[in-house]
Amino acid sequence: MGRSAVFFFLVWAAALLNAALVARSLPYDYSTSSECLAEPLEPHYGGGVIVNPDFDAGLKGWSVFGYGSVAEATSAATGNRYAVATNRTRPYQSVSQKVYLQNDTHYTLSAWLQVSDGSADVIAVVKTADGFTHAGGVDARSGCWSVLKGGLTAAASGPAELYFESNSTVDVWVDNVSLQPFSREEWESHRGAAVKKARKKTVRLRASDTAGNPVPGARISVEHVRSGFPLGSAMSQEILYNKKYQQWFTQRFTVTTFENEMKWYSTEAVPGRENYAVPDAMLRFAQSHGIAVRGHNIFWDDPSTQMGWVKALSPDQLRRATARRIKSVMSRYAGKVIAWDVVNENLHYDFFEDKFGSGASAAFYRKAHGLDGGALMSMNDFNTLEQPGDPNGLPSKYLRKLWQIKGAFPGNGNGAKMAVGLEGHFSAKPNIPYVRASLDAMSQAGVPIWLTEIDVQPGPDHAHHLEEVMREVYAHPAVHGIILWTAWHANGCYVMCLTDNNFNNLPVGDMVDKLIGEWRTNSHVGVADADGYYEAELFHGDYKVTVAHPEAAANATVVQSLSVDKESDNEYTIHV
């Protein structure tokens, strides 16, 4: 065998081995819990690389971090054993375990946590030679166990130490810890399996004659007309005056959010003088091209976004002004938008809660649902996916706020069409395992999840990092739509542009186009089998199916529209 033959044999063998390893890869465990439980559940993956994850062997494998004190403890009710970091005077005083991380490997992390009194934010931290990485967090409580689910990607091989920190001086209880490694190939195999299950369907098309008999040999062509998964971008008012912008945008996207034009400060800069001319025109443009619109936003809880005249109002005057605002914008666009960001960023800010009390958001959502019951009533906030170390954005806190809104007033319960909006303003190097873990946690809400404002800070491999984010969220079964925060402006975009000013794609734009093409079914032609069937795996969406009778004399061709989604039929009969 010559050198070239040996080389190609080795490449072929390596490819086969890699395929076999991927096929045997450990499945990803999407399970988590939003409940605070009397006893913790078993550790994911049996603990992964963690030694003695359930503390059944006492503190074997565990150490004291930060010169604190660590003790063993046992549940009187069940005999369950766990560790307690006690007498804490510094945030980092904790129980810890040393591990060895493998370069360029994704790690998924979980742990069950409890605190000795009240509630406290507990953040998982991984210390390496390069510094400290936040890997997840949870709002832990006393009297019951809460699960923290997160993750990280190892930037280099080497020793590391996992510990748990809290700014509160309460005792921190730790149990059933897991740290499970996955190679890039394994991680991608999880995505592929999830996409196949959540975004595709195998459909059987049956060609039959008018008597119901099968038509073997019928020629069947399938053309993907429109994607069923909403993927879009924010748009700016500049689209109204720029034909190139219009053409570029409408060729790609099926959903949009107006970047600023529907916000209160844009429509009523002067009290009592409303002007909806710009959002009206933008809505007409979107509707004329079949592009759905999210209503963004009715109110914004960030004090810095409030107009001077709003800040100057007394509580009674503000109450009247907000009543006019919500009625004005929602009566104008009710039935014309698919969702409303009712109170924007109310996890991080509290302008209206400070004025009206803790139930302010819930009251606004109740009113909004009454004005447009057909639209999703969405929360919308940042850092729930982006920053594991932000205590205000923790998934557990997001869920608690969502349930407060649903439960505080009649009409906000199961009858209200609530939704989760996750902005997705990522740093230059997103934490992909944490994105997946946080989506697992947010799926416990049982409502549609939208990525509403995705962008990634520019840096090395910018397009690649955006691609990783988009692939991760698209593959997650709880995600219902994606919007990129890439509204074009001649003087530059918010963080990230997809094109230059001549609407030639930048590398990130090329990457988005690649994914749009990849997430569509290529047009193809097949022939019905002896029973008249043709089977095809199709992405969810709208299709044009053309069936031609195999006998030229019959001169019969039928064109039929077909919509494929998770709830649609698996089999269709087309008469020719």
Polypeptide structure, described:
The protein is globular, with a radius of gyration of 27 Å. Helix 3 links the parallel strand 13 (231-235) and strand 14. Helix content is 27%, strand content 32%. Helix 2 (184-199) packs across helix 12 and helix 10 packs parallel to helix 11. With 576 residues, the protein is an alpha/beta fold.
Parts with pLDDT < 50 across at least 5 consecutive residues = 3-23
Shape: globular
Strand order of the largest sheet: 13-14-15-16-17-18-20-21
Number of helices: 13
By DSSP, the count of extended strands is 26
User: Helicity level, as a percent range?
Assistant: 25-40%
| Cα-atom radius of gyration | 27 Å
What is the makeup of the main sheet?
Answer: 8 strands, parallel, barrel
Please state the average pLDDT score.
94
Strand content: 25-35%
**SS-based structural class?**
alpha/beta
Whole-Å distance between the termini? 57 Å
Question: What topology does this entry show?
Answer:
Layout: H1 3-23, E1 63-65, E2 69-74, E3 81-86, E4 94-101, E5 106-115, E6 119-128, E7 131-141, E8 146-153, E9 158-165, E10 172-182, H2 184-199, E11 200-208, E12 219-227, E13 231-235, H3 243-250, E14 255-258, H4 264-267, H5 277-288, E15 292-300, H6 308-311, H7 315-333, E16 339-344, H8 351-356, H9 360-371, E17 376-381, H10 395-408, E18 418-422, E19 425-426, H11 432-442, E20 449-456, H12 462-475, E21 479-484, H13 507-518, E22 524-527, E23 533-539, E24 541-548, E25 557-564, E26 571-575
Parallel strand pairs: 11-26, 13-14, 13-21, 14-15, 15-16, 16-17, 17-18, 18-20, 19-20, 20-21
Antiparallel strand pairs: 1-4, 2-3, 3-10, 4-9, 5-8, 5-10, 6-7, 6-9, 11-23, 12-22, 12-24, 24-25
Helix pairs in contact: 2-12, 7-9, 9-10, 10-11, 11-12, 12-13
